[in-house]
Amino acid sequence: MPTALITGGAGFIGSHLSQKLLGDGWQVTVLDNLDPFYDVALKRRNVEELAAAGGARFRFVEGDLRDAGACREAVAGAGTVVHLAALAGVRPSIADPIRYWDVNLVGTQTLLQAIEDPGVRFVFGSSSSVYGGNTKVPFAESDRVDRPISPYAASKKAGEVQCYTWHHLRGNATTCLRFFTVYGPRQRPEMAIHQFARRITDGQAIPFFGDGSSRRDYTYVEDIVSGVVAAMGRTQGYAIYNLGGSATTTLTELVQHLERALGLPARLERLPDQAGDVPVTYADVSLAERELGYRCSTPIADGIDRFCAWYRAEKAAGRIP
Ligand SMILES: NC(=O)c1ccc[n+]([C@@H]2O[C@H](COP(=O)([O-])OP(=O)(O)OC[C@H]3O[C@@H](n4cnc5c(N)ncnc54)[C@H](O)[C@@H]3O)[C@@H](O)[C@H]2O)c1
Question: Which of 31, 163, 166, 302 has the fewest CB atoms within 10 Å, counting from its CB?
């Protein structure tokens, strides 16, 4: 039976990936410290659902990445490690850069050091934020990424470098995946799509930064999960791939999609551009298509419809605010 450790598996992307692997017959361990960055009850529920789905094939290690003992316990028996645990989010990283550095870098190094078997495959959840303020679009893996504009972005770029060094020293097949704004059911509550849906539903104004022309490449979580699963199949070398939707949506268009899907008007609180925010993200996914067989199959309108259907059902059941 194939075995995997998913760090951050109680969170948004990690819980979807773990669910998919359990469904496909994998044995899955999740390492997560249930960090209180957002409501811990949501993470606990994700773990409970994974335990119910996986039965004896699921193991939860509640522990911190920076704890070598917890990492060794979690890594034991895993053939593949997918490292998604991190402090995520650009804006909070500007307020507390040292904590981001500690969790994202000390944590990643502690995990890497716990992997003693060079046959274990390693997949790292990096981010489109490494492209910083690059204006040449779409972003390709060969583009310059040495000018990240937030501590979070810097920590993801540094994580890719750590992964390379450890791959060089230990030889583990290693894949870094640059995710482009991921959305879908269970999305982190502070992320734009989830936060906007909540505010529109509650009749509150949504914070609308800049003139609405900033563009993001939004990627539906199921597409990201397929890309991660494909990367888990790599057996040698070190590689970096973009996983994105390969299309862009302006902030104005995003709000219009949400208004349509929720059947409610949005009120905007217009604010200046935020420090650390990039004007555009746009993935060139041709390398992932060629080498991983990656396909982004969910257009934004469909993905927003699916997100809003989930949001409404969860809200009606009193499971989310
Ligand atoms: N969601 C996105 O749009 C996006 C985009 C690019 C990259 N990423 C990356 O993907 C990964 C998953 O993101 P997500 O949106 O699912 O975030 P998330 O916050 O829902 O999941 C991260 C998980 O890591 C756990 N964690 C945090 N610190 C930890 C620690 N010290 N020890 C153990 N566990 C810890 C948290 O409790 C959480 O469950 C992150 O590495 C993030 O940087 C996400």
Answer: 302
The answer to whether residue 212 sits within a structural domain is no
Domain contains 33: yes
Token duo for residue 98: 């040292």
> Can you give the residue range of the structural domain that contains 114?
3-183+220-246+283-296
CA of 13 to the centre of ligand 1 (A): 7
3-state secondary structure of 24: coil
The model's pLDDT over 164-223, given as tens digits with 9 standing for 90+, comes to 999 999 999 999 999 999 999 999 999 999 999 999 999 999 999 999 999 999 999 999
- Strand 267-271 relative to strand 80-83, pairing: unpaired
Length of the chain: 321
CATH of the domain at 68: 3.40.50.720
131 is catalytic: no
- CA gap 126, 317 in Å, rounded: 34
Contact 228, 177 (CB under 8 A): yes
Residue-wise pLDDT tens digits, 126-177: 999 999 999 999 999 999 999 999 999 999 999 999 999 999 999 999 999 9
Q: Which amino acid residue places its CA nearest to atom 9 of ligand 1?
A: 125
- Tell the residue nearest (CA) to atom 43 of ligand 1: 88
Strand partners, 124: 83, 176
Catalytic residue among 152, 220, 238, 294: 152
Nearest CA to ligand 1 atom 19: 11
> Is 43 touching ligand 1 by the criterion CB < 6 Å?
yes
**Domain count of the fold of the chain:** 1
Handedness of CA 93, 98, 101, 104 (dihedral sign): negative
